[in-house]
Amino acid sequence: MASLLHSSGSSCCSCSMKSINAVSSTPKLPARISVPQSIPSKELIEGLRIGDGFRSMENNVTVPVTRSKDQETSASASIATLELYAVLEAVADRVEMHHNIGEQRENWNTLLLNSINMITLTATTMAGVAATGAGCEGGSILGLNLASTILFSAATGMLVLMNKIQPSQLVEEQRNATRLFKQLQRQIQTQLALGSPTKEDVKDAMEKVLALDKAFPLPLLGAMLEKFPKTFSPAVWWPRKSQNRERKQSKIGKTEHNGWNSALEMEMREIVNVIKRKDIEDYERLGNIALKINKILAVSGPLLTSIAAIGSAHGGSWAATMAAVAGALATTVSTLEHGGQVGMVFEMYRNCAGFFTLMEETIESTLDESDEERRENGELFEMKVGLQLGRSLSQLKELAKKSTYSRIEGSAIDEFASKLF
């Protein structure tokens, strides 16, 4: 019995070991794995593009691949998006650049004004001491006259340079350039956020960048704006030739006539008349006044320091007194011109007149478009005009009504006067 159990146990054990060996055994891998010839190669998967087709590797035949119109439009929009992002990066760089240059030129204005005033006051004090001649020997008076002459001459040269470049006006130019480039940056960001831009959007953005570069140049030599023009003219920082491309149809809130009607057109025309008759004329008048004052002060400062330098060099009591008085007047004139920032005021009037000129051209170019569907949405356009002029829609309508009544009354008075005389 025991032998029977022993033999059965050994047989079971051997069977289990065989089964374990059978489970744990792994088949041997072949020495070389052959890749089936039917698997396409990488070159065939990617394809060799020839013109508008792909080359088949089997028979070397070009298979035409047709593109749908939607795919071509999508590819063009993606390229325009990349180009517009490139323009956006350039605009952001110009914003930072004009901001930094503006701070630098503001430091120029402060440092040059303080330095010239200190030099002039020091020379004036020396000339006053030399004029009294109290307790001073001849050699001491000669030294004071010589030192004051040198200082007055240096102040004259520095004033001529400062009046030529007008640092306060340069600062205002850079402030406006920074603001306008930021405005353009926000417009491009809005275009990118609303939808797929087009090639026209990219072209318009590039033209606006180039127009701003021309209106607010960074270099001082050769490209600097004329600080004392013969006549006042508004600043122009927009591409005038691209006004027609800016009239885009708005799909938001579109009505039967794209938001336009005869009353709205009449309202816009009256607003243009108000801008021409009131705002632009006022800023041109103020700009001409600021230009004349700036010219007088720019000539008076170096002239007074030159008189003071001549009086100090001549010597004598009366000449030294004249030098002291001229030096004090020169300090006052310099402080009025550059401390009061008359050049900045002139540039501010130029930009205000330019803003209203842009408003006038934008409204007129929109109204000149006979096809109402090609215009910007009328309600949206009216809201933009009201926001830019700082008036609500009701105030805008009231302004147009007042302009109409005043124009009718003026024409009636002129007709009555012509009949009377």
Largest sheet: 3 strands, antiparallel
The overall pLDDT average reads 79
Structural class: mainly alpha
The count of strands amounts to 3
Order of helices and strands: HHEEEHHHHHHHHH
- Low-confidence segments, given as residue ranges, are 1-67, 242-256
InterPro entries: Chloroplast_duf
Organism: Rubroshorea leprosula
Pfam families: Chloroplast_duf
Protein name: F-box protein
Give a written overview of the molecule:
This is F-box protein. The protein is mainly alpha-helical. It has a 3-stranded antiparallel beta sheet, with no helix packed on it. The longest helix is centred in the N-terminal third of the chain and has 64 residues. It starts with a helix and ends with a helix. The N terminus is likely disordered.
